[in-house]
Design a protein that fits this description.
Blueprint: H1 2-8, E1 17-19, E2 22-24, H2 31-44, H3 47-52, H4 62-73, H5 75-79, E3 82-85, H6 105-108, H7 110-114, H8 123-126, E4 127-130, E5 133-136, H9 149-160, E6 171-174, H10 184-191
Antiparallel strand pairs: 1-2, 3-6, 4-5
Length: about 200
Amino acid sequence: MDVLVGMLGCRQSSLPLRYLGLPLGAKFKELSIWNPILEKMERRLAGWKRLYLSKGGKVTSAYGVSLWRHIRSGWMSFSKLLLYEVEDGTRVKFWKHVWCGDRTLQEAFPELYCISRTKDSSVAEVMCWSGGRIHWDAKFRRPPQDWEQESFDLFMDMVYSSTVQGLGPDRVCWKPARSRGFEVRGFYLSFYPPTLLSFP
């Protein structure tokens, strides 16, 4: 080895050694290896970034928490503009997502939702195959009363008129422009119609 070191004009060392500032040959899970690297990165982060990032790279400030709280508070208005195309139905909630009609089944049929035994079920859990056709097994705590029968009939007509394939992954679509997908402009215009204020 000494002959090779002499011919190449380099020095001999053992693992772990440093290459480009990172330890080579060390156990990668040891905190003692990563702490100097994290400290170096923290020093390089500009003012506000250093204040708001933890060693795990997560937002730790009150501002970060309030930012996510603000985003979450707008979810209801945003989700009203989403539509689900059901294929296998594993990711779409039967009562709580817009997949059949222009609003959720929970909103369209609140009296039936109250007596449902499948309130949190996915479409796949309510969908059944029989004779090569899809049948719906929406379970209720009791049979519909006389005053609920018309609503129940409308509910069944709506569900059976849906175009569910039963195969493939479900998709989320943007209601205002299904062919183009989500657009910030479309979301903005849902709050401020173009007659009131124009958006660039």
